[in-house]
């Protein structure tokens, strides 16, 4: 059924000669009209049926195949007078400038010719770029006297894009063509025109190829009106002027009129190729919109290359809103039934699966594990209907291909844009679920950078067994727990997963045996022996740690005391795991959070991805149980502090503001000493910023001292689940200095920020210090400054995404061809060696331990423990 | 970094060889260091080497791995998390240095003129504690103008002249040479100057107020000492004396006696390339990029940055990443056309008669064939008859 798969080994580029264009042409186009009154295409018109057909009911006059099968044929227009091709204006200029005006030889002497010829041959042999040498030829081959015929040379200039001027005389395209014809093949070669594929004079057109109608299909509007493609419009223009030019020439019209028409023909041909050429007014549609002609079709982000060739639209894909589901594995994705019934998997029927597939077909296209299409042995594709399904089941035999619905366990590709790194596309196992959103485990949010405020994601279904196998071994989520960027985990716990684990494992959290067994059951862990006493959260968590795991580290909640009490830390800040038992410390972001999870990292590296996945899945379950037993809630009441604290903060801020006033006074009295290398003003600004910064921090510290670990907001901030202590102190104590362009706010009105202040006032409030807290509320002035700071942030983000996106595109484009050879060499596609060993040691960062191959101390410790 | 005894390194090397472990140099060094620090027995050392060898074998890159794309993504992806703010204080509060995304873009662009060139000048062992020497040198390197040494300066509109009085104390303080300055000034204002002890009098070429004012400015901002392209200098005592400069001129600075030729650096990659060569430039790209990323708190494996730097330096000169550099010099027409300047590349290819061999990634995507990387880079070979007949 499948034909021989041919491989394209190379593509040759070249210019078409007028003969080539005529040979290729199936018909001459002469009439500038498209359809007659009856709606039939006119012979020798732009829609000539020889050029191919789109309508499936018609047959192509040239090849006889039906519309849809015929890919179209070129026609041609004989131009009454030659016309310069816009894209080659520059090249023509350079070639003419480098050749003799009278004899047409290249303006190089014989030794130079031999020298450059050798250079070019050499470069060609090594498949190197010849651009530099040819550029050099263009500069060297500029002599006042021709070395071959001793003729004085007149300077040739170009008026962009296409007017060639010799001395003061503007050459006509015919004259240009004549001059180009005189250049010999050998000289052309040195001038960068390869005589094997192109002649210089072919850069001046005498025949214009007309693309087939499939390239420029006309569309019929609802009103029945025909609307032609931009290219057709342009070709009509060309034909019209061409006809007029012919008529005028035949009638022997004055030279002036002929030249005007010639100029006009040149304009239309120019814009037909490139409607954005500099110096040429763009041709416009009747509505005033510039036409999209050949160059515009190819160019840029929406052009053929980037939009249709480098990236293609595909079938068997789905897109919908995402929502969280902590009850599915990180390897899974919840697919709405509606989608599962639409996108299908082709299955080859054989003796072993025929019964199962029959069942699918019997279910029909509308019941879930059903089938939509059947491909018979003869290759015909038949849709499954409820009416026909029995008949199809009867006929089903091995060798058929059945496109059955997606069902649990199928492997699919899941993706969220922007696809910034390879973890933006991972393979998941399907789990068909009710409702209409994709469901994903929360641990995979960081690699996709997804949240659930309306994000949508795409799903692609693999259509071959090879791709499925490849995806399963290379692209599965569990294979991407470690990021190749830094060799640490990028998939891991976030938000409630972390606070839940903390609530479960912190000292003092105990459960009755009954509760404990409920939790264990929920986490699908093996049921341990009863011990007839209360369980601690640490014991519960230890159940999912591998038996031989040993580690010690400082947790995220560590208060960074001057002297570490290690295991006796009252904050649960020092984690000790011995032989898979959590002895001290609580689980938080450092345990299994994304980017920093040490336990997760350790399990992944020592026990492999399967274990790591199991650990993440069951820790999710445990954390949920933990959070459900303890409960967590937050509101602004969490940020409530006693009046006494408020007074202290108020005092403190007041002092700081006074200090600022003193600094300003000192500055005004010229008592301020400037820092080395800074002006007085800069020094003042720096000092004020410092004072106000400290004031905010200090007031935050005061507020913090009234918060304890019984405060849910604080739990979230200190365990690294969400937010930071800074956010809390901004709510409670003081929002702090607002900044624009890295300094205090100093813009707005003349010499002041707002008319509420005196001119040149430098005090804290006048330059954007927000004294209030979010909870108290901001006064109008503070609010305005806050909005200024906020706006800068937004603008910043918008610009940054654009800039970094372009940088990444360039980086990927520059590096994508690099490949590691069997012997460890890193080469590009030409075989040029970039590195003799990747990264100087040949280590894959994704398989490394934060960039190192192995932690020597860890190995030594393990060795000694064993003994 | 403490120096480890050569004998120990040799010993570790020998054992490694015995255990058939082919380690890069840095591994041998690390192991030797651990050997000394943890006081390992010989047996333990052997097991350590075996364990490291196993880990090393496991961690090797596989053939066909798309290292380029991964490196590009690893460097590009953190870009979205970086700050846009151009200026930041990097250790030295007095100097503005471009950091964050703009700096990273500057590095991969291989800009000829970077926005904030700066140098860190270190001194040789015998000079690095010598405050007097460093200060004198700083004044020689840093840009000083007449303004810095004038006690009094005024424009005399009545007599159409400009008067300036030199402050000898200031000259002393700056450790400059008065005669040299005067010679310089005389050279700059050949005809229009009269020197009377410490008093300098300048007269404009044409007696007009405009000319007079221009002359005054010219006098005030006349550079009297300093190395070309270097502006402000800042002397800092860290572990030793270091001079930080605004502006950069590596070539001239390295010629000064007492300057440590090894540690003194600049952040201008092109300057390093011209003065020290391509290998140094490659290292400089790595250091600068890594520093920029680390300063933002983003961890990116060095190997990725090395690959970017090696790609930029592969042709023997620093090439930018983009249409004027690597991407514009690709061998494939389609790859160039698909990146930027589509029309230009297609037209040029046609008259040159270029041939696209379709060996790259993007070309094969364009024509719809499997890409020659990863699983697409392997084929099927037939077993030869020779083996079969056995």
Q: How would you describe this structure to a colleague?
A:
The complex is a heterodimer of chains A (867) and B (390). By secondary structure, chain A is α+β, with helices and mostly antiparallel strands. In chain A, 37% of the residues lie in helices and 14% in strands. Chain A folds into six domains: 26-73 and 211-302, RNA polymerase II, clamp domain (DNA Excision Repair, Uvrb, Chain A), CATH 4.10.860; 85-202, no CATH class; 317-480, Barwin-like endoglucanases (Beta Barrel); 496-630, Enzyme I, Chain A, domain 2 (Orthogonal Bundle), CATH 1.10.274; 638-794, RNA polymerase Rpb1 funnel domain (Topoisomerase I, Chain A, domain 4); 817-867, no CATH class. In chain A, the strands form ten sheets. Chain A has a six-stranded mixed barrel with strand order 9-17-10-16-15-18. In chain A, β29 and β30 form a beta hairpin. Chain A starts with 10 loop residues before the first strand and ends with a helix. The model of chain B has no long low-confidence stretch (mean pLDDT 83). Helix content of chain B is 46%, strand content 13%. In chain B, the strands form four sheets. Chain B has a four-stranded antiparallel beta sheet with strand order 10-11-3-12. Chain B has a four-stranded antiparallel beta sheet with strand order 5-6-8-7. In chain B, α5 packs antiparallel against α13 (278-295). In chain B, β1 (87-88) and β2 (97-98) form a beta hairpin. Chain A: Residues 646-673 form a coiled coil. Chain A: GO terms for molecular function: DNA binding; DNA-directed RNA polymerase activity; magnesium ion binding; zinc ion binding.
């Amino acid at each position: 059924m499948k034909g021989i798969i041919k491989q394209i080994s190379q593509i040759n580029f070249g210019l078409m000669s007028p003969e080539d264009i005529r040979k290729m042409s199936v018909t001459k186009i002469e009439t500038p009209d498209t359809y007659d009154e009856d709606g039939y295409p006119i012979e020798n018109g732009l829609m000539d049926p020889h050029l191919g057909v789109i309508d499936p009911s018609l047959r192509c006059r040239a090849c006889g195949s039906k519309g849809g099968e015929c890919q179209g044929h070129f026609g041609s227009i004989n131009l009454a007078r030659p016309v310069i091709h816009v894209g080659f204006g520059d090249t023509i200029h350079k070639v003419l400038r480098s050749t003799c005006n009278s004899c047409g030889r290249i303006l190089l002497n014989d030794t130079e010719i031999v020298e450059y010829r050798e250079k070019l041959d050499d470069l060609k042999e090594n498949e190197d770029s010849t651009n530099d040498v040819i550029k050099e030829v263009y500069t060297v081959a500029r002599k006042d006297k021709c070395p071959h015929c001793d003729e004085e040379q007149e300077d040739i200039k170009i008026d962009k894009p296409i007017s060639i001027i010799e001395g003061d005389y503007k050459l006509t395209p015919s004259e240009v063509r004549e001059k180009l014809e005189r250049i010999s093949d050998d000289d052309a070669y040195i001038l960068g025109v390869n005589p094997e594929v192109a002649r210089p004079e072919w850069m001046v057109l005498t025949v214009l190829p007309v693309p087939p109608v499939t390239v420029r299909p006309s569309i019929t509007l609802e009103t029945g009106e025909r609307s032609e493609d931009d290219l057709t419009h342009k070709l009509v223009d060309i034909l019209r002027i061409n006809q007029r030019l012919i008529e005028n020439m035949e009638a022997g019209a004055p030279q002036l009129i002929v030249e005007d028409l010639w100029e006009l023909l040149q304009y239309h041909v120019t814009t037909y190729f490139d409607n954005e050429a500099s110096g040429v007014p763009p041709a416009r549609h009747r509505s005033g919109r510039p036409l999209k002609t050949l160059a515009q079709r190819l160019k840029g982000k929406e052009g053929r290359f980037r939009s249709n060739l480098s990236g293609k639209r595909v079938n068997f894909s789905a897109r919908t809103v995402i929502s969280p589901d902590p009850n599915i594995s990180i390897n899974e994705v919840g697919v709405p039934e509606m989608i599962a019934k639409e996108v299908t998997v082709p299955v080859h029927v054989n003796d072993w699966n025929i019964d199962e597939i029959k069942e699918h077909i019997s279910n029909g296209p509308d019941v879930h594990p059903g089938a939509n299409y059947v491909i018979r042995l003869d290759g015909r594709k038949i849709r499954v209907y409820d009416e026909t399904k029995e008949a199809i089941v009867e006929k089903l035999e091995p060798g058929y291909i059945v496109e059955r619905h997606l069902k649990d366990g199928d492997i699919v590709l899941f993706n969220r844009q922007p696809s910034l790194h390879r973890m933006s596309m991972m393979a998941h196992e399907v789990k068909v679920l009710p409702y209409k959103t994709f469901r994903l485990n929360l641990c995979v949010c960081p690699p996709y950078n997804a949240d659930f405020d309306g994000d949508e994601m795409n799903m692609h279904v693999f259509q071959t067994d090879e791709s499925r196998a490849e995806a399963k071994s290379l692209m599965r989520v569990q294979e991407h727990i470690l990021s190749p960027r830094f060799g640490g985990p990028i998939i891991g716990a976030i938000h409630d997963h972390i606070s839940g684990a903390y609530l479960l494992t912190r000292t003092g959290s105990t459960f009755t045996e009954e509760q404990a067994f409920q939790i264990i059951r929920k986490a699908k862990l093996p049921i341990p022996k009863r011990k007839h006493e209360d369980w601690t959260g640490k014991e519960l968590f230890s159940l999912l740690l591998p038996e031989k795991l040993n580690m010690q580290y400082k947790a995220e909640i560590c208060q960074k005391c001057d002297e570490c009490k290690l295991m006796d830390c009252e904050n649960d800040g020092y984690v000790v795991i011995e032989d898979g038992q959590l002895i001290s410390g609580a689980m938080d972001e450092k345990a299994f959070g994304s980017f920093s999870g040490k336990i997760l990292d350790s399990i992944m590296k020592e026990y492999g991805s399967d274990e790591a996945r199991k650990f993440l899945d069951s820790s999710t379950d445990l954390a949920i149980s933990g959070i459900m037993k303890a409960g967590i809630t937050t509101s602004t009441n969490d940020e409530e502090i006693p009046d006494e604290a408020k007074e202290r903060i108020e005092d403190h801020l007041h002092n700081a503001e006074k200090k600022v006033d003193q600094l300003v006074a000192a500055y005004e009295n010229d008592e301020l000493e400037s820092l080395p290398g800074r002006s007085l003003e800069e020094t003042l600004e720096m000092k004020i910023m410092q004072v106000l910064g400290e004031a905010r921090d200090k007031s935050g510290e005061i507020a913090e001292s009234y918060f304890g670990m019984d405060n849910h907001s604080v739990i979230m901030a200190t365990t690294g689940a969400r937010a930071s202590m800074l956010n809390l102190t901004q709510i409670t104590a003081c929002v702090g200095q607002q900044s624009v362009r890295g300094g205090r706010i100093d813009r707005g009105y003349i010499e002041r920020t707002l008319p509420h202040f005196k001119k040149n006032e430098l005090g804290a409030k006048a330059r954007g210090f927000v004294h209030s807290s979010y909870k108290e509320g901001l006064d109008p002035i503070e609010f305005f400054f806050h909005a200024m700071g906020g706006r800068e942030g937004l603008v910043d983000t918008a610009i940054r995404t654009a800039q970094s996106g372009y940088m990444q595109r360039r980086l990927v484009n520059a590096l994508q061809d690099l490949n590691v050879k069997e012997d460890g060499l890193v080469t590009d596609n030409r075989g040029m060696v970039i590195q003799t060993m990747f990264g100087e040691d040949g280590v894959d960062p994704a398989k490394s331990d934060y960039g190192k191959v192995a932690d020597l101390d860890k190995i030594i410790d393990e060795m000694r423990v064993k003994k | 970094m403490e120096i480890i005894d050569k004998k120990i390194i040799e010993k570790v090397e020998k054992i490694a060889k015995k255990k058939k472990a082919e380690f890069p140099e840095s591994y041998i060094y690390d192991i030797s260091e651990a050997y000394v620090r943890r006081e390992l027995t010989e047996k333990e050392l052997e097991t350590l080497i075996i364990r490291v060898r196993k880990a090393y074998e496991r961690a090797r890159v596989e053939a066909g791995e798309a290292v380029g794309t991964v490196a590009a993504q690893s460097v590009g992806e953190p870009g979205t998390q970086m700050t846009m703010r151009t200026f930041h204080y990097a250790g030295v509060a007095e100097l503005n240095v471009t950091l964050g995304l703009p700096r990273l873009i500057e590095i991969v662009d291989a800009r000829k003129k970077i926005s904030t060139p700066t140098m860190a000048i270190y001194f040789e062992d015998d000079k690095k504690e010598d405050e007097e020497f460093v200060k004198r040198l700083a004044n020689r390197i840093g840009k000083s103008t007449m303004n810095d040494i004038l006690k009094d300066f005024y424009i005399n509109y009545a007599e159409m002249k400009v008067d300036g009085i030199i402050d000898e104390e200031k000259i002393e303080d700056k450790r400059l040479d008065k005669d040299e300055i005067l010679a310089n000034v005389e050279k700059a204002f050949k005809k229009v100057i009269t020197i009377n002890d410490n008093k300098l009098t300048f007269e404009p070429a044409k007696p007009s107020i405009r000319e007079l004012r221009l002359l005054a400015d010219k006098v005030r901002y006349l550079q009297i000492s300093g190395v070309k392209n270097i502006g402000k200098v800042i002397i800092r005592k860290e572990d030793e004396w270091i001079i930080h400069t605004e502006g950069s001129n590596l070539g001239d600075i390295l010629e000064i006696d007492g300057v440590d030729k090894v540690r003194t650096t600049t952040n201008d990659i092109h300057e390093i390339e011209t003065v020290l060569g391509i290998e140094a430039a490659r290292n400089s790209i790595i250091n600068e990029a890594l520093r920029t990323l680390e300063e933002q708190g983003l961890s990116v494996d060095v190997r990725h940055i090395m690959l970017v730097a090696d790609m930029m330096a592969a042709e023997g000169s620093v090439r930018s990443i983009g249409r004027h550099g690597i991407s514009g010099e690709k061998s494939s027409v389609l790859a160039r056309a698909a990146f930027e300047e589509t029309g230009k590349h297609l037209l040029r290819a046609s008259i040159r008669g270029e041939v696209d061999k379709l060996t790259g990634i993007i070309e094969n995507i364009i024509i719809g064939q499997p890409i020659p990387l990863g699983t697409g880079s392997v084929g099927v070979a037939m077993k030869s008859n020779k083996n079969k007949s056995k």
